[in-house]
Amino acid sequence: MLIQVLKSKIHRVKVTEADLNYIGSITIDPDLLEAANLIEGEKVQIVNINNGERIETYVIKGERGQGGICLNGPAARRVAVGDIIIIIGYGYMDFEEAKSFKPMLVFPNTETNKLD
After folding, report:
1. Which of 59, 62, 76, 80 is the most exposed place for a label (fewest CB within 10 A)?
2. pLDDT for 116
3. Residue 41 host element (H or E)
4. CATH class of the domain comprising 2-104
């Protein structure tokens, strides 16, 4: 049996941009993507700590080293620049394998969105 489990989490990052006119997705600094073991095109869940919204979208790579987090398209209506969000990636795995699996959890500096 396959079950869906937490694979990756970027915990508490600040939204730096919201672009309603982009076609969709979340743009994330590649430094954060690599640290959390997320890839471009991967489906993620966004949890907005400020307003409780939960959004599903996919990842696009942003500029490296800038700490950028941008919600694009319709998701831009569900955040405000400055909101604190959690970015979650899930994966499917065998039930027995999941018992010992350890997800990648990243805790960046909330002010800069960079890894200290």
Report:
1. 80
2. 86
3. none
4. mainly beta
pLDDT tens column, 71-84: 999 999 999 999 99
Q: Is the distance from CB of 26 to CB of 87 less than 8 angstroms?
A: yes
Catalytic residue among 22, 58, 90, 92: 58
pLDDT in tens, 39-76: 999 999 999 999 999 999 999 999 999 999 999 999 99
25 is catalytic: yes
Domain chopping of the chain, boundaries: 2-104
Provide DSSP, the chain. -EEEEEEEEEEEEE--EEETTSSSEEEE-HHHHHHHT--TT-EEEEEETTT--EEEEEEEE--TTS--EEEEGGGGGG--TT-EEEEEEEEEEEHHHHHH---EEE---TTT----
